[in-house]
Amino acid sequence: MTEQADRLKELITETGVTMRELSDRWGWSYDTLKSNANGSMPFSYKKALVYATRFGVRAEWLYSGAGPKREAPKAERRSVQDVPVIGWVQAGQFTDISAQDLGELETVTADGLGAGKWFATDVHGDSMDRVSPEGSRIFVNSSDKKLVRGGYYIFSMRGETTYKRYYDDPVERLEPYSTNPVNRAIFPTRAHPWVVVGRVYRSVIDLD
Q: Which residue, among 182, 139, 144, has the nearest Cα to 166 in the 3D structure?
């Protein structure tokens, strides 16, 4: 079942970490995970349920390719709101965006963002180009500062702004999600801690 293995490898790649890290993090057998992912040992539907729960996908899709990869989101009322646009350098000056008066800034209309205090800013650099190529506009909820493993956030460090994913296993770090191998993880220190500016929930880019 090479297609089954390909689907599992796709999910592993999406996490941005190695199979060894995943097996250690979630208490799986590394040898079993490796064999399942390279196709030398097809996995059962029961095993697909275990994997699917962790990866947030449908077990039927992972096991046999049936149906959508993930459940369709429940229909909800989509709200439209004007979101202030903050320059990237300027954003680095705000360690607490929620406390600022953003009423005088340029705005962009967005829908379906939900509750929170939102701002938008444009991405510079390639450290997150797998999801946000340079020039992308990201939408950030500055009232959501709860760190979730694998979540996308804007952080302030040493007066500078950085857009990264958060991980805390085996150690706390800010991970790039990039096609450029030059980009490396950032680790906090007592001398240089980070401050969460907000969580990134949307990334868009014009194609023309």
A: 144
Q: Is 31 exposed, middle or buried (0-12, 13-18, 19+ CB in 10 A)?
A: exposed
Could you check whether the bond before residue 170 is cis, i.e. omega within 30 degrees of 0? yes
* Domains of the chain, start order: 2-64 (1.10.260.40), 80-204 (2.10.109.10)
Q: Kindly give the confidence (pLDDT) of every residue in the chain, 208 residues in length, as a single tens digit, with 9 standing for 90 and above.
A: 589 999 999 999 999 889 999 999 888 999 999 999 999 999 998 899 889 988 999 998 999 898 889 887 765 555 788 899 988 755 555 545 544 555 667 888 888 888 889 999 999 889 999 899 988 999 999 999 999 999 999 998 877 889 999 999 889 999 999 999 999 999 988 877 888 999 999 999 876 5
- Could you tell me the two tokens for 149? 């493993």
Q: What is the pTM of this model?
A: 0.58
Quote the CA–CA distance of 175 and 28 in Å, as a whole number.
23
CA-closest candidate to residue 44, choices 85, 87, 4: 4
Record the tokens describing residue 44, joined without a space: 């059962």
